[in-house]
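Contributing new records

If you add data, match the layout below exactly. Sequence lines come first and carry their own label; structure lines follow with theirs. Keep one chain per record. Anything else will be rejected by the validation script.
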Amino acid sequence: MKNPDNIQALAEVEPDYMGFIFYKESKRYVGALVAEQVRHLPKGIKTTGVFVNSDLQTIAGTIKDFGLRTIQLHGAETPELCESLKIQFPDIEVIKAFGIDEEFNFDLLHTYDNVVDYFLFDTKTPAHGGSGKSFNWEKLKQYSGEKPYFLSGGIGLEHLDEIKALNHPALYAIDINSKFELEPGLKNIAQIKTFKTNLYGLQA
């Protein structure tokens, strides 16, 4: 999210999390977004800063400036960095993202078990996500860990039935992005409402 009006419109849909990308190479980089426009969002929405290989000082400064409640790490961040974040900001949720392909080894996650709150499984891309492509969800059967995870990667309205059919005990949340955009960083609010209504069986 990076457009103030679009942010406010999405807030009315009451998502559990709302992401703000602080990776300058991303098409969805927050740019000149004013911190107060994030700090004043309803407390029921977990404002989430997305970072790629940023150092601890940069992440910490952004947490303080924007009042972030969740951090999503999409690069090669180490368990040590995750632990440092948890120590410095004990009330912050830390999500460590991993790019998944057919060769991915879920054993790599063990060193993060005690220093993050959630994992996020996304499609492996050189651009650290945002590809609009899904990975093979059959691969999730190889994940036997207890750490809850977010499912990400090219999820759209056409995936609703597949998501409802997933029966994985650690699946915690669905992360949607590019398939619900009018342009990078500008969300289609009507589509998101439809997705949420159908995913949770709510009345429109």
